[in-house]
Structure formats: structure tokens, C-alpha cells
Design a protein that fits this description.
Blueprint: E1 2-11, H1 16-32, E2 36-52, E3 55-67, H2 70-81, E4 85-93, H3 102-117
Antiparallel strand pairs: 1-3, 1-4, 2-3
Length: 118
């Protein structure tokens, strides 16, 4: 089975419950195609480097996926249709990260720097 990291950006005007529903929909698509979601991380509402479809911010969600390559094609096809998702990207990886991703650890690292200064 191949391993993938999939990140999608949802519109800024969505509520967190709607973003969670999008992640559940993606998980259902993956599981319906004989795949498995190993980990789901919600990175929250973050600023974009440039405007995308009149959005200055977006909700970021990452899924770590295990399964055949046909999953990626179907998942990206469904996300291209969905108006709430403004960008998505899937990358094949050799192995999945244990523990939180770099984006989740960044807030821990920033917090420890502030404590060290004081």
C-alpha cells in the first residue's frame, strides 16, 4: 500500500463544524475505495500568501492516507467539484510521521521560545 499526505484548504467563511464535515467526507471517500486514514490534523484558519478566489485566509486540513493510487484520483476529483475547497495537494511519501506534524509542533516551539526569554 502506498502512503500519502493530503492537504486541502477550505474557504475562510466556513464554520469549524463545516470544515470537520469536509474532512469526514474525504475520509469516507478514502474508506469507500479500500484505503485508510491514519491521521487527520486541522491546522486552523491561517493567512494565505496571496488571494485565492477572493479569500485572504483558509482553513487547513491534513490527512495521512494509506491505500492504492486510485484513492488519490477519486479524492481529488471530488474535491475539484466541491466549491468549499479552494486548493488541495497530495504527495506520496516513503513513511508517515509519528506524532504531530511540523505544523502542529511549530506552536509548541514558539511557546517554548517565549518562556525562555522571560
Amino acid at each position: 500500500m502506498a502512503l500519502y499526505e493530503h492537504v486541502f484548504l477550505a474557504r475562510q467563511d466556513l464554520a469549524q463544524a463545516q470544515v470537520d464535515a469536509l474532512a469526514e467526507t474525504a475520509t469516507k471517500i478514502i474508506e469507500d475505495n479500500q484505503g485508510k486514514v491514519v491521521k487527520t490534523e486541522t491546522w486552523g484558519l491561517r493567512s494565505l500568501a496571496y488571494k485565492i478566489a477572493k479569500n485572504r485566509k483558509a482553513h487547513y486540513v491534513m490527512l495521512e492516507i494509506e491505500g492504492p493510487g486510485s484513492i488519490v484520483a477519486e479524492l481529488e476529483r471530488q474535491e475539484a467539484i466541491n466549491e468549499d475547497i479552494i486548493r488541495y495537494m497530495t504527495i506520496r511519501v516513503d513513511e508517515l510521521e509519528n506524532g504531530p506534524s511540523v505544523m502542529m509542533r511549530k506552536s509548541d516551539r514558539d511557546g517554548s521560545r517565549r518562556r525562555e526569554r522571560n
